[in-house]
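> example.struct
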């Protein structure tokens, strides 16, 4: 064997290709070993946080990791239970805050605890982090991410299994949300079964006219009277409210 061939074999053995780490299918023992290794890089820890956000034991081990980035820590705080939030405050010696930037500036800094403002950290998250957070995050995260320009993120909030009818009603009243969000709410029969949500959609100028007209027969005379004089809704909806109001008063509806 010549010298060239011998060195080629040596180099090939040293740099043989490795299989990528498949976090989602690792055993619990392997995951714990990864978390206990102080050399584990931050991007691996972030993947573990997204894949195992429902496992509180994994979340506790994650919070202890020295290489954990603030964006990942905020993701954990916004998806975990109150018990994990308290664990973060105790382990990291920091207070988890959901206030906006203006509130933080007015608040006097604590003498000992550092503050983790998750709302500010969300702005630095990657697209994949925001998508995962929208579909699994807590109420604070849903309220912020529903306003994202990305349709995927906003729709992820509506697909979140933890979302409540109270939040849906609040979103239905919001005229500063995208039309896609309002349309998605308006076409969900389970949500619009609640009268207050149907009424909120009709009064929202962002609601497509076809959807608004479908809910109007369910409105009371008082609600139709308000709609008839409202300048915030399309003219077609006002006209339909006026005609329906006349019919109801005449007893023909």
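> example.seq
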């Amino acid at each position: 064997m010549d010298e060239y061939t011998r060195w080629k074999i040596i180099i090939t053995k040293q740099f043989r290709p490795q299989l990528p780490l498949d976090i989602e299918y690792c055993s619990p023992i392997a995951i714990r070993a990864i978390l206990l290794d102080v050399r584990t890089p931050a991007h691996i820890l972030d993947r573990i946080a997204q894949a195992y956000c429902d496992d509180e034991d994994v979340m506790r081990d994650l919070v202890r990791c020295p290489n954990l980035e603030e964006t990942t820590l905020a993701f954990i705080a916004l998806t975990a239970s109150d018990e994990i939030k308290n664990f973060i405050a105790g382990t990291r010696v920091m207070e988890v805050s959901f206030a906006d930037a203006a509130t933080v500036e007015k608040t006097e800094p604590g003498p000992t605890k550092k503050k983790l403002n998750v709302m500010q950290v969300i702005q630095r998250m990657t697209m994949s982090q925001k998508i995962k957070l929208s579909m699994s995050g807590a109420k604070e995260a849903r309220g912020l991410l529903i306003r994202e320009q990305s349709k995927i993120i906003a729709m992820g909030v509506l697909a979140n299994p933890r979302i409540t009818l109270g939040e849906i009603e609040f979103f239905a009243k919001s005229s500063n949300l995208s039309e896609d969000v309002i349309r998605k709410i308006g076409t969900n029969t389970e949500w619009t079964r609640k009268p207050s949500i149907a009424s909120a959609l009709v009064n929202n100028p962002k609601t497509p006219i076809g959807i608004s007209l479908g809910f109007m027969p369910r409105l009371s005379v008082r609600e139709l009277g308000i709609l008839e004089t409202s300048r915030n809704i399309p003219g077609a909806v006002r006209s339909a409210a006026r005609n329906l109001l006349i019919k109801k008063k005449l007893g023909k509806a």
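> remarks
The CA atoms of residues 60 and 84 lie 7 Å apart.
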